[in-house]
Design goal:
Blueprint (H helix, E strand, L loop, with lengths): L5 H11 L3 H10 L8
Helix pairs in contact: 1-2
Length: 37
């Protein structure tokens, strides 16, 4: 499993406006690829 950093979650939240847990879940499902998430 790939490490998901707070910065990655923050970047995805800024792009999408989604919640923290939603972003973490999406990142874990997409192997930490913020574009796919």
């Amino acid at each position: 499993m790939t490490e998901i950093s707070a910065a990655m979650v923050k970047q995805l939240r800024e792009k999408t406006g989604a919640g923290i847990m939603d972003c973490k879940e999406a990142l874990s499902e997409c192997d930490s690829d913020t574009d796919k998430a």
